[in-house]
């Protein structure tokens, strides 16, 4: 869905109420702006955290976790 919004002289934008409600920003809130090759992506804090977790999971799957790492270190040290 593409929605046209205006940018004020000071760089502020206003998100339409319907969009803010869908994103859980009906009162106020924070969004994160990511500049990509294709343009700009806005994410809510919850969306940004979910994306970060998904990226981290992709790079850590099958590599054990911190618990496994610490257990291996303890075993190596004889503790």
Q: What's the overall geometry?
A: elongated
Query: What fraction of the residues are assigned to beta strands by DSSP?
Result: 15-25%
Note the main sheet: 2 strands, antiparallel
In terms of structural class, how would the helical and strand content be classed? alpha+beta
Quickly count the helices.
Answer: 3
Radius of gyration: 20 Å
Point out poorly predicted stretches.
none
* N/C terminus separation: 57 Å
Fraction of residues in H or I helices: 40-55%
Q: Give the SSE string.
A: HEEHH
Strand order of the largest sheet: 1-2
Mean pLDDT, to the nearest integer, reads: 86
Provide a concise account of the structure shown.
The chain is 43% helix and 15% strand.
What does this protein look like?
- It contains 3 helices and 2 strands, in the order H-E-E-H-H.
- The longest helix has 16 residues, at 45-60.
- The termini are far apart.
- It is α+β, with helices and mostly antiparallel strands.
- Helices cover 43% and strands 15% of the residues.
Give the helices and strands, then pairings.
Blueprint: H1 17-22, E1 31-36, E2 39-44, H2 45-60, H3 66-77
Antiparallel strand pairs: 1-2
Offer a few descriptive terms.
3 helices; 79 residues; alpha+beta; two-stranded antiparallel ribbon
């Amino acid at each position: 869905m593409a929605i046209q919004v205006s940018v004020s002289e000071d760089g502020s934008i206003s998100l339409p109420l319907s969009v803010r409600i869908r994103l859980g920003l009906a009162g106020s809130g924070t969004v994160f702006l990511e500049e990509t090759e294709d343009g700009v992506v806005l994410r809510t804090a919850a969306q940004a955290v979910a994306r970060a977790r998904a990226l981290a999971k992709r790079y850590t799957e099958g590599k054990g976790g911190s618990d496994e790492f610490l257990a291996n270190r303890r075993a190596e040290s004889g503790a």
